[in-house]
Sequence to fold (361 residues):
Amino acid sequence: MKALILAGGFGTRLRPISCSRPKTLFPIVNKPLLEGIFERLSENNIMEAIMAVNSLTEFYIRKQKIRKHGLKVRYSIDPPKTPLGTAGPIKNAEKLIGKTDSFLVLNGDIFADIKYKEIIKTHKEKKALATIALHEVKDPSRYGCVEITEDKRIKKFIEKPKKGSAPTNLINAGIYVLDPKVLQYIEKSKSVSMEREIFPKLVEEKKMFGHCMQGLWIDIGKPTEYLEANKILLKAHYNNKKYDNKNLKIKNYVAIDTGVKIGEKTVIGPYAVIGKQVAIGKNVQIIESVILSDAEIQDGSKINGSIIGEGVFIGKNVKIGNGCIIGDCAKIRDNVSLPEGAAVCPGKEISENILKSNIVC
Ligand code: GDD
Ligand code: MG
Fold:
């Protein structure tokens, strides 16, 4: 079976970190999300992936040289200046998909602990045209909401229902098995939405089924969700790791990648992820934050609940409050305080306090 990975969206809700990398390359506990997807596919014996992307995303993925875990990876590129939505890229990859076998489609911004075999089994049993993985959430309003019959047939699919109006808490987990016949439902060379245009037709024709999945599932589309995904994974896998340094205070759970330097009396954690080659000074505090590789954080600075991009420089005694996002290679000079929710664009230099939580470009 082949897997098609949709990864050509613009990640607008994760700006400014997504200005310089696609969502699917965001590191989750120091491993690019896409690498985790490849790993899971390989564990499930799915050894061929088609990346449905735009040319910029292709460039970033190739440049990062992530581990492919034995997968054969091919690219299907959206036409320039015409994003194809969530169904158009599947049609665009028709030749690579082939006409005979069912195939898997994965949203490239989902972290999920799922056994593909189970959803494939439901798909075969039901002789479905489409079978989608379903997950239960508290607030379905930012997802595709689903109503299902006892025999797993989907009787309603509503994309992003208004708050409070969703008929159930079951949502489209962004993981599907499709029969190649579905390609006939999608118009060529156009932006088409799987969720708003194709799924409702398949529901009407009673050819769409759902498979409820248990276990870890998270869409990293928003900064809070991205931090939460890191937190959940830290909790699950990093509880007993010991870091040998008596001058350093580690509060579980933390992950520290290779080549990291940390000064005396610095406190890391709880829930901190530190990327490769990050240099951290003395008396620094890093709480509930993700620091991407090659950042430098000088003495006395405090970072809480924030995402710090690759190669960012943070001077002495800087305060970075909750929900801040600092784009790659930005510089925050000594003694600056950033308010909650501030966002700094890549490469921008900040040398005075910011009072409002705007995006600074
Ligand atoms: N190639 C390509 N071209 N990929 C795209 C395009 C495009 O024009 N637009 C979006 N994608 C990719 C995104 O990169 C992402 O991996 C996937 O398609 C879904 O798009 P999102 O923009 O992340 O959608 P969403 O999160 O609002 O909603 C979708 O996912 C939810 C689960 O997280 C829907 O499928 C919902 O129904 C679902 O519940
Ligand atoms: Mg998404």
Remarks:
- The radius of gyration is 22 Å.
- The chain has a mean pLDDT of 93.
